[in-house]
Amino acid sequence: MTSATTYPHLTGEYTIDGTHSRIGFVARHAMVTKVRGSFNEFDGSFTVNGDDPAKSSATVTIQTKSIDTRNADRDGHLRTNDFLSTDEHPTITFTSTDVTQTGDDTFDVTGELTIKGITKSVTIPFEFGGSAKDPYGNDRVGFDGSTAVNRSDFGVTFNAPLETGGVLVSDKITLEFEISAIKNA
């Protein structure tokens, strides 16, 4: 049996580069198609322990008002109490509680996700995309991950029945994370 790949050269503190990262979501709409969106304002950091991934950690804070589905009317509705209540709940947060290496370049990051003041434990499978020194001399890493959550678990319950059966918006939402981060000096 071979041991998993380790990454001692990656050990350190990292800051998420918001201009080269994306935090998004996918929801089924009217039972026939998917609507994609993202949050344009977020920040976060993480600690990588390349020898012992279980000692790694991450935190992310998302500004809910920055929701963007490329439709101003829909975005406005998503900001209301029907969905995210952005005035009352200006942020969505994630704080890791466990990191488990599941393969040579895959990791499960479990943590506390808080939406609308409701906190639930979620696990996000991530894939390590690689590391590089960028043109500015920064050490940069990339990770991609996604997980599905039920929005109703977080108090996001608005819906409308369709004449043909089903509902306007799926309860299941896929959260997507495309993360590029820079190692702190």
From TrEMBL:
Residues forming the Lipid/polyisoprenoid-binding YceI-like domain are 13-182
Please indicate which superkingdom the organism of origin belongs to: Bacteria
Recorded hits in SMART domains, A to Z, give: YceI
Q: Which Gene3D superfamilies match?
A: Lipid/polyisoprenoid-binding, YceI-like
Q: Which Pfam families match?
A: YceI (PF04264)
Q: Which family does it belong to?
A: Belongs to the UPF0312 family.
PANTHER family listed in its UniProt record? PROTEIN YCEI
Please report the name of this protein according to its UniProt entry.
Answer: YceI family protein
- Species of origin reads Amycolatopsis ultiminotia
